[in-house]
Amino acid sequence: MFVSLNETRIYMEEFKNINDVLDFAIQSEQDAVDFYTTLSNSSTNTEMADIFRQFAKEEMGHKARLTRIKEQGIFNIQIENVPNLKIAEFLVELKATPGMSYQDALILAMHREKAAFKLYLKLADNAPDPNLREVFYGLALEESKHKLRFELEYDEFILKEN
After folding, report:
1. How many CA atoms lie within 13 A of 54 on its CB side?
2. Which candidate among 55, 61, 73, 97 keeps its CA 20 to 30 Å from the CA of 107?
3. Where are the domains of the chain?
4. Could you report the per-residue pLDDT of 59-116, keeping only the tens digit for each?
């Protein structure tokens, strides 16, 4: 998911309230579920397929959490300091291909989560309403956690092997 500043303005026009934001975020999580499910199904390595299924399951959990937030109207942000290993910043962005290596899939996932993080930060910075701003910052925080997860996985299974 890469969104330019012009596209961010378009999204801002579409978001009239917090439910619009949550609908967008819920759809983004579903897109992530679909993305990791596709990677799982196209993987020729059983272990990689299992890991991508696990990632898809985690994204389903995020979607369920956002759905509960929307239904209950309660969105609590716990401020956390999420480390940034900055691994993605030094890796070339890739496109998904059938039979891609685990390393390439992790790189793709890191860049995807980084783009989502940047999108939510831009949306927060441009949000006209403090409640919307808070929701966007909370979603950005979640995306930074996702990116960290993939960076840790990359560090553990790719960098340590080299």
Report:
1. 10
2. 61
3. 5-74+82-159
4. 898 888 889 888 887 766 666 777 676 677 767 677 777 677 888 888 888 888 888 8
For 50, 86, 103, 107, 149, the CA distances from 110, given in Å and listed in that order, are 18, 10, 11, 5, 9
pTM value is: 0.72
- 127's CB contacts (< 8 A; 6+ apart) are 12, 15, 133, 136
The answer to whether domain 5-74+82-159 has CATH 1.20.1260.10 is: yes
Q: Return the amino acid letter for 54.
A: Q
Is residue 120 within 8 Å of residue 139, measured between CB atoms?
Answer: yes
End-to-end CA distance of the chain: 29
CA separation for the pair 10, 24 (Å, rounded): 13
